[in-house]
Amino acid sequence: MRRITRIATVGIASAALALSATACGGKKSSDASSSPSESGQKSAAIAYDIGGRGDQSFNDAAYAGLKKAETDLKVKTAEAEPTDGEGEADKVQRLTELARKGNNPVIGVGFAYAPAIKKVAPKFPNTTFGIIDDTSVTGPNIANLVFNEEQGSYLAGVAAAKASKTGTVGFIGGVEVPLIKKFEAGFTQGVKDTNPNAKVLSAYLTQPPNFDGFAKPDLGKAAALGQLDAGGADVVYAAAGLAGSGAIEAASSKGKWAIGVDSDQYNQAGLAKYKDSILTSVTKDVEDSVFNLIKSVEDGKPTTGEIRYGLDKDGVGLADSNPKYKEMADVVAAVEKAKADIIAKKITVKTAP
């Protein structure tokens, strides 16, 4: 899906933000840093990851948090979409423009924003910058919103192993980076701890610096079909953003199970035609992480540093929206036991395969 760069204020018709203020004789970033929301209007912004809003997954979860803040906190909100093949300079410009216009906080959705936030945040010391899924960039005005993805993925592995009839399940990662390898590690461990004889097929759609594996559903569909047909898998778990929707489509076409990621994908409108094949989803409470950061700024006590969400705080989990999942008593019982054991630290989940 090809997207156009846009910076738009949610729910306000006339809200397009002007680009390239410096080039047009505006203030330098450092000059604008001390006066967020000069108009007196509260405002918060997010800059989307690859795939943009509408991915039915990671970005949409972040948008839900922004929308909740707009409704509950009465703040104005802005969004900025990525472009195909963009580089670090594009992200720097995007974050700079959002901060210059007085948005606070400004949240980068995804680890790809780390280099840009490292450059932009020091220029706007009175603006809080949030980054989701990254701890590599730190600073007095940076909040690192991170999750124990491996814990939720372990539960998915338990569910997959219990639901599988062939004893073979599949994992599909969007791009082979450390973050996605956490998903793979947890999933594989959960499968093997539940059924030591089970086989886990693993595949990555692209290698960095090619990040198409997070954006192209056709790649996810092809990989899933390979695992389902040639590999004999009957459950496929994809941690691949928008590309994961292709894996869900493939599983549905074969009458097999898919496991969603980041959002409860059973309830995503764009996946409604495949929902009966979505056994469960590994959820990350990206929505509340975004909302909580915005609220901390609005309360005058901006949260910074590492803010971690795990099973113990329901920051990650496994969705049970599909009635068919709830009917699988043995699956549910095994998942609940695994969850309790992880929280009690009886099980330590690996973060690398």
Automatic annotation (TrEMBL):
Its main location: membrane. Residues 25-46 are annotated as: Disordered. The keyword Iron does not apply. The keyword Ribonucleoprotein does not apply. Residues 49-338 form the ABC transporter substrate-binding protein PnrA-like domain. SUPFAM superfamilies: Periplasmic binding protein-like I. It holds the Pfam family Bmp. It comes from the Bacteria. It is a lipid-anchor. Residues 1-23 form the signal peptide. Keywords: Cell membrane, Lipoprotein, Membrane, Signal. It is found in: Cell membrane. Belongs to the BMP lipoprotein family. This is BMP family ABC transporter substrate-binding protein. It comes from Streptomyces nojiriensis.
